[in-house]
Amino acid sequence: MTLYENLAEAIETRIRQGLYRPGDRLPSVRSLGIEHGVSLSTVQQAYRVLEDKRLAVPRAKSGYYVPETRQVPELPQATRGTQRPVDVSQWEQVLDLMSEEPSEHLTQFGRGRPDIDSPTLKPLTRALSRFGRQQSLSGLTYGSIQGNLQLREQIARLMLDSGCQTPASELIITNGCHEALSTAIRALCVPGDVVAVDSPAFHGVMQALKGFGLKALELPTDPIEGISLEALEMALEQWPIKVLQLTPSCNNPLGYSMPDHKKRALLALAQRYDLAIIEDDVYGDLAYRYPRPRTIKSFDEDGRVLLCSSFSKSIAPGLRTGWIAPGRYYDQVLHMKYMGSGPTATLPQLAMSAFIEGGHFDPHLRRMRHLYQRSRDQMIEWVGRYFPENAKASRPEGSFMLWVELEEGFDSLRLNKLLRPKGIQIAPGSIFSAAGKYRNCLRMSYAARPTPQIEAAVREVGEVAKTLLTSHD
């Protein structure tokens, strides 16, 4: 065993023997280093092992503690979907969420914003500045409708990690993943068509369906493995489904990652029914495990999968730099891209290409995966400590989104309204359903690093939720 593994085992033994009780502060990194004659990094590695075993939890500027006795919340129940295609609603609620500007006076658990304060992004800001100063002003000109070739080549290389061998010539740069998804939907569907989706689903896709006059069929979804293939096959027999749209890896908001065997089975089912699949992989690079999950696209041999992604979650949303690999639908998607927004802004593409080519992307991802995983564990522990007793929480395998389920009859819209005067915002569960289901659920971002202020905000959400439940009873 390594030094840090031996040290972790020694501390674990003390915890299990009751020398450190639930809620107790564990020895500092410095004191343990002196006691055992090891480096500070060795002690830190030992504490990470204990964190993974849920035997130690960090508190900002305070050290490590033994977790409280309350158990980790149970997983949410598998969802039931809808029995028939429905029109999408909830636009006013989505608009309320998206209209809020970032502010130091608002703890924004509701928006899907990554942490952009990492020092690993400094090479990107330098690249943006450098291209902005160039006398040729290359970053201020129109680019090609397909997008910058150098960036497409870099993205094609990155896609190898997900199992995809897609040449740069088959990629189209978009204004974020949101445009990639909406362009794909518009390229394949006409008003009145039916689109099958996982449930709960990304609210941006829901609103795209609403805007294009399409109907959504929500599929039963498991919080560990994703959509029910049996339910999808029954739906394909019953309804004229044009497209399936889902986020199979590090799902938003439920957190699941569909196993490879199920992705293969899904693709086989799509081939049998000649079904197109729009795959949202925007969170795939933020998977905590290595290698990252394979995409459905990586198994696709006849071009029926349209893969959509961006750097909005892995790097920064303000770049608005995404892409789509449309497969056999390339010409339709390119036409819709031209009709919609034309070429994507050039300057962010040049900067992102330089950032990746300079070898900065992978170190940034490694850092963020580690930070988000630690934040996930802390957020789940806080939900278990401060939320109502029967609260359930997802186990995201990547990204920075947590899905929390409370008892039937709870009103997360009411919860959000009561939290706003307190400077806190959450995402009500109903915006992730075409039919407005999941009102008893909420989504919370844990991209912000755990601090006493964030902990206090989570405690406030839990306390207000308890008050609502008491008044409901």
TrEMBL record:
UniProt cross-references to Pfam families, sorted A to Z: Aminotran_1_2 (PF00155), GntR (PF00392)
InterPro entries: Aminotransferase_I/II_large (IPR004839), HTH_trans_reg/aminotransferase (IPR051446), PyrdxlP-dep_Trfase (IPR015424), PyrdxlP-dep_Trfase_major (IPR015421), PyrdxlP-dep_Trfase_small (IPR015422), Tscrpt_reg_HTH_GntR (IPR000524), WH-like_DNA-bd_sf (IPR036388), WH_DNA-bd_sf (IPR036390)
Keyword tags: DNA-binding, Pyridoxal phosphate, Transcription, Transcription regulation
GO molecular function, one term: DNA-binding transcription factor activity
Top-rank lineage group of the source organism: Bacteria
Gene3D superfamilies: Aspartate Aminotransferase, domain 1 (3.90.1150.10), Type I PLP-dependent aspartate aminotransferase-like (Major domain) (3.40.640.10), Winged helix-like DNA-binding domain superfamily/Winged helix DNA-binding domain (1.10.10.10)
The HTH gntR-type domain, residue ranges: 1-69
Similarity-based family: In the C-terminal section; belongs to the class-I pyridoxal-phosphate-dependent aminotransferase family.
UniProt name for this protein: GntR family transcriptional regulator
